[in-house]
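TOKENISE THE FOLD
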Amino acid sequence: MFVSSTTTFLPRSFPLLKLEKYLAASRLSKTLLELIKIRASQINGCIFCIDMHTKDATHHGETEQQIYALNAWRETPFFTPEERASCVGIHRSSNPDLKQPRSR
């Protein structure tokens, strides 16, 4: 059962792995990078990745409040303009079939 989940996951993950490599070379903070990864994992429904990136984010100093509120980033006051822009970008790139998020 785990093997089939893993083999199903791998082909879908290749675009995200390319994005991760690109982002790793950027000047974005470690906490923002992890928020981006958590949000992409939420959109794609990958519990393994959510768990991994949540642990990485807390290791790099991200607050639990930010992590818990990430799924409702549009409605919370906890995110900076840079973090909000990242959420919009990952929303658009993770699944083009999703409705575009409303901007505030």
